[in-house]
Structure prediction request, 338 residues.
Amino acid sequence: MKIKNSFLRGLKSGIPIGLGYLSVSFTFGIMAISLGFAWWQAVLISMTTVTSAGQLSGITIMVNPGQYIEMLISQLTINIRYSFMAVSLSQKADGKFKGIFRWLLGFFITDEIFAVAVNEENVTRSFFSGLAVIPYLGWTLGTLAGALLGNILPDSVMSALCIAIYGMFVAIIAPKATKEKPLLAVVAVALALSCMFYYLPLLKDISSGISISVCAVAAAIIGALIFPKKEEA
Amino acid sequence: MDNIQFLIYLLIMAGSTYLIRAVPFAAVKKKINNTFIRSFLYYIPYTVLTAMTFPAALYATNSMISAAIGLAVAIGIAIWKKDLTIVAVAACVTVFVSEYVIGLL
Prediction:
């Protein structure tokens, strides 16, 4: 009963992520088709990779023949943030969430799934599995829909859907940052760095996947040095 | 593009992305006691999300104004009521309405 409840709670927590993914992967589907991919290729990429920035950069490399090393390097730099998240999540995983379950469920560590999971006191296998279901379906179906239907949704609806994922991010950051002053300061540093990488000459030429990792790591290091978290009892 | 080449690319992309997630997750079994690393790991999710949201979110919709209003509403509702779905839906509706209003002006 406890396991079922925790799975269902995870399932419910995944709904906003799934909705957000629907719109993002829809755009990915359209882009893949416009670059010359078949619909099943776009869907296969989404089902096996499940990462927005990595996939976008991946398909632009794929259209050129034989750039395997470039592909590897771009994926590693864009996705290195998942390693930090995985280690962070490993600290919250409960006693039974180990071994094969980590190898299986580790596949689903995305920015958003991680962000929701890490808000838990303890992350159980059942909660995490439930949490992964709807985002994964949303990511897959959104890609399929985008690839097959293209621009069938009115522009105004597409535009509104595009803010969903960011609304979700804000909902994760804002409540905690307004309660904890150090976190607010660290978030402000990340925001300032991110804007620098977006607008300043030279810095703005760096791909978004890399600059997000750099900004996030730099701000978190500054935070860890200036506001170390006291050991939790 | 032929299917063989597609599959090689897919293998590199999906394989590296999987390993980068699963290996650290499976490998770190103990509690980390180092305060610096613990603090870093505490802050990293929030800094990643912040860097992904700002300023990119301002350019995600048809107009910077609608995006800014949508984000502001999202922040307000997030602080008041923490539910992720409500915040996400409210942000979408706000963007939709404000673009409609901008269109009328």
Helices of chain B lie at 3-27, 35-53, 64-80, 84-104.
